[in-house]
Design goal:
The protein is mostly beta strands. The chain has helices at about 5-10, 15, 385-390, 420-425; strands at about 20, 25-30, 55-60, 70-75, 85-90, 110, 125-135, 140-150, 155-160, 165-170, 175-180, 180-185, 190-195, 200, 205-215, 240, 250-260, 260-270, 275-280, 285, 310-315, 320-325, 330, 350-355, 370-375, 400, 405-410, 415. The protein has a seven-stranded antiparallel β-sheet. A six-stranded antiparallel β-sheet has the order 6-25-24-27-22-21, with no helix packed on it. A hairpin with a 2-residue loop joins strand 11 (about 175-180) and strand 12. The protein is globular, with a radius of gyration of 23 Å.
Length: about 450
Amino acid sequence: VDQSSSKVAEMPVEDKYKYNSGFGNEFATEDPRCPGALPEGQNNPQKCAYGLYAEQLSGTAFTAPRVANQRTWLYRILPSVKHVPFKKYGGNDLVSNKLDEQVPNPNQLRWKPFDIPKEPTDWVDGLRTVAGAGDPRVRSGLSIHVFVCNTAMKDKAFYSSDGDLLIVPQQGNLDITTEMGRMLVKPNQICVIQQGIRFSVNVNGATRGYVLEVFNNHFVLPDLGPIGANGLANPRDFLTPVAWFEDRQADFKIVSKYQGHLFVAEQDHSPFDVVAWHGNYAPYKYDLANFCTVNSVSFDHMDPSIFTVLTCPSAKPGTATADFVIFPPRWSVAENTFRPPYYHRNCMSEFMGLILGRYEAKESGFNPGGATLHSMMTPHGPDADCFEQWTNKELGPIKVAEGTQAFMFETSFQLALTKWGEETCKKIDEEYFQCWQRLEKHFKI
């Protein structure tokens, strides 16, 4: 079947993006153009329907406990092994795991919005590593990247051999084609594309966002404990694309992030040739507007863990490799309480980004497309204006963060900055510390 990219572009939007719902489900899906492509009752028959190849993609060890085991069987036109050898990729040297180049910086840091290039730049070439910890070679740690781009990945696919990617668009839609199907991810939505899954990103104009890459494990929904069976991010709201394929000859570039470096291999066909698949290792998207917040309805400011969307567990119970936390619009009703985030020193590292609006604890200086980093045990909290306003404000039911979506990548690792993140990008706000200098002493005896 010949399904050219020009034909796909003409399809109605409602036909192009179709999903199955549920988090961590076992899915079975086949492109309707090839009914019966999924084998019945087995994974790798002697001969697959339509002359397809069976290929397994493992996201965990074969012997991982069944409750945690993740894998997917792909039925594709050609196996992914058909490519020429990888070579060092020369299109982007700003993806890096060089975390010892800079002297550690314990200061509170704020970045102004990252510049989107004017010259044609696709998603891969616009990826920049800001900070990180650990080493993908020992499957421990993470990287925080931003992406700034303005053109589609033409005949190019990307995958990370190092870890799972949680992608947060801030400006511009991401039209993502993966081996398992297609997703449209807009600002105020996120997607997760797991280790090894190949994908291509199409954009229309200036586009920017953030990426959290975790090496240790996969993202899961946080346990709800006494909250009960419902609330926060509900499983039914996670959407996984259905099977879609193209049978297209092209000089395709496959870019792999491997041990913190980018490599490229060439092949003569599209990698998006999976006609059918079944399993539980597949990309998904989620709309942050669907998050069901919980909060205090009596007194005190609750810990931000109540706003956790996804968590990547570490080996230490209750301590995450990384949490993805949001600060969405919500009602604030706590009585006799300083309602903004409290002053804090933390045994975790907190990297924040702003998708839209103004963050409630710092309404000036922290802008969409920018970021902050409050490192392990570095003090942080509301600026002087926020403290004075909320200390003296008449309390009552108040809708906070309307038109705003801030988020946090929180990690139990100490974060180190890359040279690009601290110097080359030239976006660090050297006056950030000034927002706390006007805090006054109110102590009286």
